[in-house]
Amino acid sequence: MLERIIEPREYxxxxxxxxxxxxxxxxxxxxxxxxxxxxxxxLADTMMVSYAGEAVVAGVGLDTMVYTIFIYLFTAxxxxxxxxxxxxxxxxxxxxxxxxxxxxxxxxxxLSLLCMVIMLFFGSSLLxxxxxxxxxxxxxxxxxxxxxxAWSFPAxxxxxxxxxxxxxxxxxxxxxxxxxxANLVNVVGNAIGIFVLKxxxxxxxxxxxxxxxxxxxxxxxxxxETRASDELLGKIKALSxxxxxxxxxxxxxxxxxxxxxxxxxxxxxxxxxxxxQAAKVVLGxxxxxxxxxxxxxxxxxxxxxxxAACMGMSMGTVFITVVGQCVGAGDYEAAKWxxxxxxxxxxxxxxIWNVMVMALTPILLTLYNLSDETKRLILIIVAIHNLFSxxxxxxxxxxxxxxxxxxxxxxxxxxxxxxxxxxxxxLSFILALWMGMGVIGIALAMVLDWCIKAALDIWRFRSxxxxxxxxx
Length: 472
What we know:
The chain has 472 residues and is mainly α. It folds into two domains: 20-263, no CATH class; 288-472, no CATH class. It contains 18 helices and no strands. The chain has helices spanning 2-6, 21-50, 54-90, 94-130, 136-150, 153-168, 172-196, 201-223, 227-236, 248-251, 256-287, 292-328, 332-365, 372-391, 393-396, 398-405, 409-434, 439-463.
């Protein structure tokens, strides 16, 4: 029944489909669990941080915007590497797949060390410039938190590099378990730092840093092909063929041609993500002018939006793995067939998931101490978000990942910049400010951005021009 719903009418032999429905299921479920786990841990962290005092809460909140930019850089490197590794797996060039995997570690490690040094030496001055009106105790907490988490940058980059390798192989269960261990360390560490040691900002910063190093150590050990790592992977039941691994020597040196292939995907992706984050900061400043009720509605609504977006984010990773392997094999007919299938699957799963989230929203809102007007606004903006998240976002998100996996990275970058940075920002000011719609206007601008991006991605896919972009 499921095959009839999601599989295209065009015939494709089973040996060219790359992944069976059972294999797709084994990829999607761990990815979704990992996303949900991170959300739950994030909520637990927020709750525990609140016991450290408002200054710490405010300081950590101010740091988040800066910290997120660095995270985007490291994830962009890993995403670029995942595309390249996937394509080499598809072309059955194991040596090049191993080399590209090793180069993700080198590039991510080198970039993260540079970022760490910059923030250790200049972070305090940067924060002082960014938040000149912040209260003294808030800025002090902000500086402490940033100085400590800056030490986690190399570990963050190394973990993401390893995660990219296993996701390229379709072994998402590995990243799920490593993420579980790291998040457990983080939560327990926060509890000790806040409730036992009462260390304030340092009490939440050090557990974050330590948890990233735990994740990086485990992931690196698994990426090195040894008897111990293969036995552990066997226990997780995630060992695949071919087994892509890193070489220590190759991860400590620059291979310019291979690094160029990875950066060819990573740089447009990082530009796209950085400008997206900058647009969010601008819209956050706009929202701050709407009054307490609407600010609270927007802040709380984003929690539900993040929950609803989990399915789309998970499917984006699946697109990269499947489409990347098809393109690497030079089988563009199979890539087109799988893009159609995965888009249909994304629509089906997004519809089910967003209906569930919408149904849970009124129940979860009873746990919040908010006014009736704030809750009314939250229900409206969540309904707008979830409707379009189910029907439109699979074309603007996961489908875009499929085009990126095929090597069409410049188009996806410019399309995203036009739709998100230009259109969403302009529409937000028009709808929210000039037409007086407030946060409802912000929500409408966001989903209209998706509609524009979806239309561009669908046009690009149908044009077939995405097939002309080569990476390997």
